[in-house]
Amino acid sequence: MSECIIVFNDVSKSYPIYHHITGGIKNFLFHLPKALSSVKNSRFVALKDVSFKVNQGETLGIIGENGAGKSTMLGLIAGVLKPSKGEVIVKGRISPLLELGAGFHPELTGRENIMLNGVLLGLTRSDVLKKIDEIIDFSELDEFIDQPIRTYSSGMLARLGFSVASSLNPEILLIDEILAVGDKLFQKKSKEALLKLINGGVTTVFVSHDLESVKEICHRAIWLDHGKVRAEGEPGKVVEQYKIML
Amino acid sequence: MNKRVQHYLDLIVVLTQKEIKVRYKNSVFGYLWSIGHPLAFAFVFFIAFKVVMKVQMEDYTLFLIAGLFPWQWFSNSVNAAPTVFWGNASLIKKVNFSRHILPVATVLQDTIHFILSIPVIVFFMFIYNKPISLSWLYGIPLLLAIQFLLTYGVSLMVSSINLFFRDLERLTVILTTLLFYFTPIIYPETMVPERYKFLVIDINPLSALMVSWRNLFLNGTLEPASLIVSFVYSVLAFVLGYTVYRKLSWKFAEVI
């Protein structure tokens, strides 16, 4: 039970500010000395000395204002970002719940996109084939599954995305603000599916502005404020502290 | 371990399938477009050089086609490269997968189109009463492998750098056009004046390869010297491309 799945040790993450480069090669070369020094000096600090652990089977909620560093934290856990300082240890296969339609191609059908997404998220083709009926069933897309997803409504896209990510048997689930999509009925269904996964022992990091869901679902919560951990502990208490600030 | 290799292969298959499907969805003529473009080019050069300027060359149409098809593969892949990572921004930001597979899929897609266009070359050989050589059996796979490595190396480099310098997208179009005229495709390497030979033939990484393709198609010959030169250039391109990718890839999610 108590094995640590995700460990952040004094993690800082800062981004260089890339405005000099987005100005194109010409601007960069014409102002070379200035540009080089600005590469070195102008950095935006997204996370500063953040340390925490997530145990096996635990659900951690992350709350905070926009720009507090929540998405950076998810990026670090997913391994798409590297910390500037400190270390991030993650053990296990990760399944991020992608934002609406991310990684889906609009011209492909729902079925083709399930395959594409499943393989991108780390499964082999035969793994996906074994699960594809279950995924389609859950998504309730029925005959739409063989239509190009550019014809889908945003609710349908969300259902497809959730169905893929939740049925891949992930060891770590990353959720970035996803429960608020789809109609009420599907929201309820996806919440149930999520709780089932959580009760089944998957380690989850849940980023949300929906404070009620955080209280309901999470075992523990962290309040991020301008890249620092402002409070950590029992979700109810952290949410109360956060609410006072608002 | 075995599972990892399997997953790697599946990733290539799925992404390449995606490229091909996306290309042909909503397209009535589909495959015809991929041969229509080089054929139209061949027609233009035929009019300009054979009909108008009356250049003395036998079977010039065939000569053009044998060079333009492999060139088209290289140029299509490289010109598509700038958008390979950029176009998959949402994915690169969220999922940690082997990103260098994305350009493999785009280059592989163009490779498949090139292979499918070989029957067109055969058709023109037939019209011009030229025999098809048995040496194609080993020559084509060999040159395919060399050109794949070269094209992939260049594509990987262009797609990686383009995330940091968006201007590269424009530059690539200009450079491939320049490279086209600096490569013996619409003229034979023997017609290049002595003082330009170094520039056009020796240091141009595409020359030996394009000349090899043409000689293989037209005469069924495969010169070991050109083969070695083009192989060395393709390995260099691959190493360079992969090094650039390795140096930059950890920053992809930050800049995209």
Question: Any idea how many domains of chain B?
Answer: 1
As a whole number of angstroms, the C-alpha radius of gyration of chain A is 20 Å
**CATH superfamily heading of chain A:** P-loop containing nucleotide triphosphate hydrolases
Total individual domains of chain A: 1
- Radius of gyration of chain B (Å): 19 Å
What does this molecule look like?
- Chain A has helices spanning 19-22, 24-30, 32-41, 70-78, 110-120, 125-139, 154-166, 184-199, 211-217, 235-245; strands at residues 4-16, 43-55, 59-63, 85-90, 94-97, 172-176, 203-207, 220-225, 228-233.
- By secondary structure, chain A is of the alpha/beta class.
- Chain A has a six-stranded mixed β-sheet with strand order 5-6-7-3-8-9, sandwiched between helices. A three-stranded antiparallel β-sheet of chain A has the order 2-1-4.
- In chain A, α5 (110-120) packs across α7, α6 packs across α7 (154-166) and α7 packs parallel to α8.
- Chain A is globular and about 60 Å long.
- The two termini of chain A are 35 Å apart.
- With 256 residues, chain B is mainly α.
- Chain B has one domain (2-255).
- Chain B contains twelve helices and no strands.
- In chain B, α3 (60-80) packs antiparallel against α6 (101-127).
- The longest helix of chain B is centred in the middle third of the chain and has 27 residues, at 101-127.
Give a short overview.
The complex is a heterodimer of chains A (246) and B (256). Chain A has 246 residues and is an alpha/beta fold. Chain A is 42% helix and 26% strand.
Quickly list its features.
heterodimer, A: 246 residues, alpha/beta, Rossmann fold, 3-stranded antiparallel beta sheet, 10 helices, B: 256 residues, mainly alpha, 0% strand
Secondary structure layout:
The complex is a heterodimer of chains A (246) and B (256).
Chain A: E1 4-16, H1 19-22, H2 24-30, H3 32-41, E2 43-55, E3 59-63, H4 70-78, E4 85-90, E5 94-97, H5 110-120, H6 125-139, H7 154-166, E6 172-176, H8 184-199, E7 203-207, H9 211-217, E8 220-225, E9 228-233, H10 235-245
Parallel strand pairs in A: 3-7, 3-8, 5-6, 6-7
Antiparallel strand pairs in A: 1-2, 1-4, 8-9
Chain B: H1 2-24, H2 31-52, H3 60-80, H4 82-86, H5 89-94, H6 101-127, H7 136-161, H8 168-181, H9 197-202, H10 207-219, H11 224-248, H12 252-255
Helix pairs in contact in B: 1-6, 2-3, 3-6, 3-7, 3-8, 3-10, 6-7, 7-10, 7-11, 10-11
